[in-house]
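Ligand: guanosine-5'-triphosphate. Inputs:
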Amino acid sequence: MEAGRLLFAAPCRFVHAAQRLDQVPPVAGPEVAFAGRSNVGKSSLLNALTGRRALARASAEPGRTRQLNFFDLGGRLTLVDMPGYGFATAAKSVKADWQGLMFDYLRGRPTLRRVLLLLDSRIEFKPSDAAVMELLDRAAVGFQLVLTKADGAAPGFLERKRREAARLARRHPAAHHAVLLTSSRTGAGIAELRAALAGLAA
Ligand SMILES: Nc1nc2c(ncn2[C@@H]2O[C@H](COP(=O)(O)OP(=O)(O)OP(=O)(O)O)[C@@H](O)[C@H]2O)c(=O)[nH]1
Ligand SMILES: [Mg+2]
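Predicted complex:
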């Protein structure tokens, strides 16, 4: 916990945005990417972890993040805010663009230490989530399930979702077995997630 607190007490700064794979910065230190459906709370979680309200742009409008946004955390860890998938109302061509970029990046990034795959704890998991887990299995990219918006569901429902996510994690070879329950709004689970990420930092 202390290692996590220290890591995230370091300054975090935006370094780069990539719209295409050839704009992705050269590999440097360890990276952790935030992935998940549109609106699941990726940008908000990044802000909560770094204790900055508007480092990453969050919005109630799904499809807010349309590029890979790279943030440097104290020179020890790169955090990557990704565009969401499963967002149906965007123009098809645009959608293919940024979702394609997301998958290409996930498959081909040697310094990617872990993908945080975010799932909304208030709703049912979707086929697109299962598809991404399979892709990560096939690409042998380690991922960890993180339930978001834990402030928005009753305790009994949350516990059921946590168990369901833990079952999914056990079924997927690339999944980390620990499932985290978080809320960017209340700060629940944030210290635990910081601690988990401290284990991956340089
Ligand atoms: N209740 C609650 N709402 C949240 C939480 N985290 C994010 N939200 C809300 O969910 C919406 C989407 O948040 P974002 O962080 O922009 O989601 P995103 O996954 O980055 O979305 P895209 O960039 O569009 O893929 C916003 O209206 C946030 O205020 C949370 O912990 N609790
Ligand atoms: Mg976003």
